[in-house]
Amino acid sequence: MPELPEVEALAHHLREYAVGRTVARVDVASLQVLKTASPPWTELHGRTVTGAGRYGKYLDMDCDGLHLVVHLARAGWLRWADTMGATPPKPGKGPLALRVHLGPPGEGPGFDLTEAGTKKGLAVWIVSDVRQIPQIVSLGPDALSLTRDALADLLAGRTERLKNALTDQRLISGVGNAYSDEILHTAKLSPYATAGKLADPALDALHAAMQSVLTDAVSRSVGQAAARLKGEKRSGLRVHGRTGMPCPVCGDTVREVSFAEKAFQYCPTCQTGGKPLADRRMSRLLR
């Protein structure tokens, strides 16, 4: 899933290559992705792209006051091309959900919004004010905007596991499954620690790790072509997605805890005092 660093890099790419261009045409290949009906997508036609930004993991392209807002969900992506095909895509065929032409179709650049897999979560809104989108209104403060004291205030009294708190977009926006694993590993904290019971040194470490991990990832990602961002993300991860491999800090084997639809990774030596965390899925299989 694209998280704060990748979405920031995509916003930067649009600011560099899309701002100043005119939306010539929008092709919708999947009506399912559109979460708003009015104004229609055709209202974007003829508008100039005037800006691009980010709200947590939501990408916003400002078209002279009308916003195209995208949440890429788990398997969505933005694919930029210097020349887009002129033929409108056939609805329901393949991963393509929506195409934006930023110049004459067949001649100018643009981008596709695509989504792999059968479970669809890619979402697109067309609004005059981003505050019309409930999911954005409900976002917590951006992870990179938090001071140490603000983070402490957010976590105070919370009883959920730290891993769950970091990925709750209503509490802290921008951090997902991958970067929460990296932040917790860097801070040497257990994913199962209680969010509201961290001592001051742990809070210090958590805040420093959040800032360093995300800032480093943004620095690596911004300026990369959109097609290279996924690979850049994977190359910078130390524990996430590295189950069974040695921890680059201590050499212990990176372990995994699996749930119904996702998993997280951690290092027992660095994070849990050498004790593997219970994996309920594996426990059921061993009964």
TrEMBL record:
Q: Which domain of life is it from?
A: Bacteria
Task: List residues of the FPG-type domain.
Answer: 238-272
| Name of the protein in question | Formamidopyrimidine-DNA glycosylase
Pfam families the record matches: Fapy_DNA_glyco, H2TH, zf-FPG_IleRS
Q: Which organism is it from?
A: Actinocrispum wychmicini
Q: Which reactions fall under this protein's catalytic activity?
A: Hydrolysis of DNA containing ring-opened 7-methylguanine residues, releasing 2,6-diamino-4-hydroxy-5-(N-methyl)formamidopyrimidine
The Formamidopyrimidine-DNA glycosylase catalytic domain covers which part of the protein? 2-107
Q: Name one GO biological process term.
A: base-excision repair
Please give the family membership noted in the entry. Belongs to the FPG family.
Required cofactors, per record?
A: Zn(2+)
Q: Name one GO molecular function term.
A: 8-oxo-7,8-dihydroguanine DNA N-glycosylase activity
Known SUPFAM superfamilies for this protein?
A: Glucocorticoid receptor-like (DNA-binding domain) (SSF57716), N-terminal domain of MutM-like DNA repair proteins (SSF81624), S13-like H2TH domain (SSF46946)
Alphabetically list the UniProt keywords.
DNA damage, DNA repair, DNA-binding, Glycosidase, Hydrolase, Lyase, Metal-binding, Multifunctional enzyme, Zinc, Zinc-finger
